[in-house]
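Thread: Newbie trying to understand structure tokens

Hi all, I'm a second-year student working on a class project, and my supervisor (Dr. K.) asked me to get a predicted structure for one chain before our next meeting. I've only ever worked with sequences, so writing a 3D structure as a token string is new to me. If someone could post the tokens and maybe explain what I'm looking at, I'd be very grateful. Here's the chain:
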Amino acid sequence: MKKNFVLVIGFLCLHLAAFAQEDTAQDPPPNTVEQQFIDVVDGSNSYQEFKVIKKTEINGLRKSVLDSIKALETNIDSLNSQIGAQKNDISKLQTDLNTVQQDLSLSKQKEDGIEFFGVLTQKSTYNSIMWSIIGLLVLALAFFIYKFNNSNKVTQESQLKLAELEIEFEKYRQKAIENEQQLGRKLQDEINKNRKG
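---
Reply by user tm_fold:
Sure, no problem. This is what the structure looks like when written as tokens:
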């Protein structure tokens, strides 16, 4: 039991020592160009009002600055390429959008219109034309029915008058035949009288 207690206390001490070292150890400052300038200027010697900087440090700083500039130029070129590609994409999308809008406008015109004798007309115009034609046809039909009824009435009246004339003619003919027969009898009577007498 005493042995376990010593082990636990030893483990706790080691753990606390490691934790304390982690707290005291700070992350090294980032190695940026600005930090390198600070390190070079602060780490250099002073002579009167001048700073004396070692050639190796200034050359290292120059190399870092040139590398940073080159990396930035590469990044700028890459970003410019991306911008160019995005501009091309935007241009293509704008063209596609214009095409879609034209197709949509044409579809709306076709939806709102009807092709009539090969010409796309609006539905309201088409309806007006069709109802006008139907109205004219109904008027023409009414006119022809009226004319037909009048003609039929005139024909019936003419046929009735013709039938009446035929009846009158038949009566006249019979009367004429009767008169002719009577005249014939009278003539025969006269002839007979003249023969006898």
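A couple of things are worth pointing out once you decode it. The two ends are 200 Å apart (CA to CA). The CA atoms of residues 53 and 129 lie 97 Å apart. Feel free to ask follow-ups in this thread.
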